[in-house]
Amino acid sequence: MMFERDEKPVAVESADNSDSGLEMDYEEIGQRTARLLTSSQTPKTQENDDDDTEVAPDLGSDSQPLSPGVSSGQASSGVQTTEQSQEQASPDNQTLLRLLDEGEKIRHMFRCARIEGLDTFEGLLLFGQAHWYIVDGFTLLRSHEIREIDCIPEELHDPIIPMKAHCKCTSKRHSKFAYEDIREVCKRRYLLQPTALEVFSADGRNQLLVFPRKVKNKVYERFLSVATAITDSAHQSVSGQKRNATVEPGTGLLSSLMGEKSVTQRWERGEISNFQYIMHLNTLAGRSYNDLMQYPVFPWVVSDYDSEELDLNNPMSFRDLSRPMGAQSGERLNQFKKRFAEWDDPHSETPPYHYGTHYSSAMIVASYLVRMEPFTQHFLGLQGGHFDLADRMFHSIKEAWLSSSKHNMADVKELIPEFFYLPDFLTNHNRFDLGTKQSGVTLNNVVLPPWAKGDEAEFIRVHRQVNGDTPPYTCRLFKQSVSSNIASAGMWVPAI
User: Fold this and answer.
1) 103 — phi, psi (to 5°)?
2) Nearest to 113 by CA among 124, 105, 102, 104
3) Would you state the pLDDT for residue 114?
4) Residues 446, 368: Cα–Cα separation, whole Å
5) What is the spatial distance between Cα 102 and Cα 92, in angstroms, rounded to a whole number?
6) Side-chain-facing half-sphere of 145: CA atoms under 13 Å
7) pLDDT (tens digit, 9 = 90+) per residue, 218-257?
8) pLDDT tens by residue, 390-411
């Protein structure tokens, strides 16, 4: 299919007055192009009273398309003859159409970037009749052309994420989702900017999509208008609470969560486990498995990594949840306080601080999961293509705990959810050469505490039991610690 020049005004939704001219131009181009992109089996034009644009028309002999064969001057001025357009069908349009259902009508089109770990894949978000699509590797030009990103000059491409190096994509992914399978749509931040949405589907798939600035809210409303199965149910929501349990002005997240129908109230009543509660908090905070820079955070819970049997009735077996990792040891806490009190920057550029590192980062997540793909490649990418020195690699549960809680002033990291359900990340199934420590120890599988009996699945079982609903004392200990420190600035929950 090709593109028709439309001289008539196009009905578009009202936009934020702060939208830049460039953003509004691309939005209008997407609206127009979506109306004009259709398959040859599509019936003639008909009006849709429920939509803000016409249903995509059949492009017959009366159309005046724009094709890639037109020069940039002709495209910008809208000069092209019908004979030229009929002879120059866009191969990129045809490639895109072949990825869609036969006879599909595209009603709305938006440029987007799909986030997967540390990778970004720019493409198009398409809204059809009963399905929505994500197609990597294509973009929408200001000339109303759909083009493959790898095939256009760099000066014609306006990337959504400018800092991402443009790379050739030999394999382009395209995905189709039914509107009826959408379970939730959440607003997200990417690179600290409120430009992303995360869409959760009933089949377990979820997509983190970044849009040009100011376009996100319009796409969000479009998703809500087509998602027929979204229910305001705390039990079905990925955030664990109804949408009306929102943050009230001036109260903060946790104060709001303690209100009626909140996930905290459900947790306090025992309706959900500790693991579910923490996962819901991560979701509410905007954390996502799709973004290593905002990966879900879980706390260190156990502090005993020496005993043959873990005594769940001994409070000394557990981490002090009322304190962050930097304050688990009184000696190290005093060192942090001393550094803060004695800090002197001769250039007055850096104010005093306690912790110089973060409790979660892309490197921390990749280092924990380095034995599993695709995280191995993420780690190598962050390390310049090679593994880190063996003495700095994640090798032992006990050593990681001691580093984070006691020995290392530059380490205050917490855990990730995989410590409570995925034994595979502890085993070097791929036989990666992770190096040899100065002590002569060759790195392979993660060294487990004695109470795990050398079994990764046993470690996960005990660790999940400690953080779960049984035995009662452990659950009660966890809840009492969280509840009594819910408003503490040093508590690990606000850190999420």
Assistant:
1) 80, 5
2) 124
3) 95
4) 10
5) 17
6) 26
7) 999 999 999 988 776 666 667 666 665 543 333 455 545 5
8) 999 999 999 999 999 999 999 9
